[in-house]
Structure formats: structure tokens, C-alpha cells
Amino acid sequence: MHDLIAELDRARRAVHGADLHNAPGHVVELRRRLRAPVAEAWEACTAPGRVGRWFLPLGGDLRLGGHFQLEGNAGGTITVCEPPRRLQLTWEFGDAEPSSVALELTSAGDDATEVVLRHTVPNDDAWTQYGPGAVGVAWDLHMVALANFVVGNDLPKGEEFMADPRMPDVMRHSAALRGVAHEAGGASAEAARDAAARSSAFYAPQGQPKPT
User: How far is 171 from 194, CA to CA, in rounded Å?
Assistant: First the structure.
């Protein structure tokens, strides 16, 4: 396995306040440079056959206003689709309040793309308990997989990926990075630290990773 902790450190994270469904919410942001032109990065993020190689099998009516579904995970409605630059969709999973995910792709040179992922989540019990780590740890890992996929390196997936003995440390590092962004976004040092610790314990309890 690659040095996934070093991969995590290549991304930038932020936390912002936002409105969601006319109520207070939070934006969990992740930025990463991909070694691929914008058109290729867009295809990697939107073509079902490619998404399934670094994320999850994807199906549905994949157009503006259509409904998508990730196998065993979230579904939702595509609310903005401006190839190859902007994609926004609702994120609906189980009984949780729907949230919103947006992708922005910007050229960073002939063979590079700056990708910004923003997940806007409600100010609910999950936020109080875990802060940005609630969704951010999983997005961190998926972004690493995407960055590797666009250069022709498919990382292990699913149980094989999670079974690597180094994964608990990787997930704890991700939770800690999310805690730093949480505090920089205005949370108190104590609240950010405690939320990061709970995220770490959730994803890697007693030294064992929790699949997402």
C-alpha cells in the first residue's frame, strides 16, 4: 500500500458555516490537486464505469434532475451539472437528514486539476458529536483513491482496503486533520479536539478500522 498518511497530507481542509434547508449547517471542504486534465478528472468523477473503480458502483438517471444511487450507500438528486466544471447533488442516506455535495474542477495546468469537494451537512447530533470527521474521514480516503485512480493506480477496495493493518493509523490521522480544520473554522480548541477524538474512536475503535 502507498504511504496513505503522506497522501492525506497532500490535501487541504476547511470548515465553514452555511445554510442547509433554511437552517444552520456546516460545509466540510476538501481540496486536492489531481494529475489529470479537467476533462479526464470529470469523467473519473461522473462516468459510472470509472466511479465504480475508486468509489462505489454507481447507477441511476445520471443527468440534471435525475436520481443517482451508490451501491449500499447514498443516493440523491443531481441539482447542478455543468460539465466539466461543476456538479452538485443531494446526499440522502438512511434516516439521516439530506445533505448536499458539490464538486468544482478547475484547471491547474495542462495535465492537472484542482478538485474541491464541499459536503454541506446539518447542525445535528452527528455534528455535535463528531464535527467534520463524521463525513470528512471517509471523503479523505475516497479522495486518495481518486488521486491514485487518475494516474492508473487502482487501490484495493472494500474489505481488502480496510483490512490493511496500517488503516487505523491512517484514519486517526484523517480525524486529527479534520480537527485542525474544525478549530481553524471557528470551533473552540476543546470542542475540535473532542470531536476529532470521537471520530478517531468511531473509525478505528480499539485499534481496528470501521468500514464505511
Answer: 16
**Using alpha carbons only, what angle is made at residue 28 by residues 24 and 29, rounded to the nearest 5 degrees?**
135
**pTM more than 0.70:** yes
Chain segment 29-85, per-residue pLDDT in tens: 999 999 999 999 999 999 999 999 999 999 999 999 999 999 999 999 999 999 999
If you search the block for the grid coordinates 440523491, which residue do you land on? 76
Say whether 30 sits in a helix, a strand or coil: strand
The runs of H, that is alpha helices, within the chain are 4-9, 38-46, 48-54, 125-130, 133-149, 158-162, 167-184, 189-203
Q: How far apart are CA 133 and CA 203, in angstroms?
A: 9
Residue 177 to residues 10, 39, 149, 193: CA-CA distances in angstroms?
Answer: 11, 30, 23, 10
**Which amino acid, residue 46?**
T
Contact 99, 23 (CB under 8 A): no
Q: Taking a C-beta distance cutoff of 8 angstroms, is the pair 105, 113 a contact?
A: yes
Note the helical H segments in 118-211. Answer: 125-130, 133-149, 158-162, 167-184, 189-203
Residue 130 backbone dihedrals phi, psi, to 5 degrees: -115, -15
**Grid coordinates in use for 58?**
454507481
The three three-digit cell numbers of residue 102, written as one number: 458539490
CA distance 111 to 144: 18
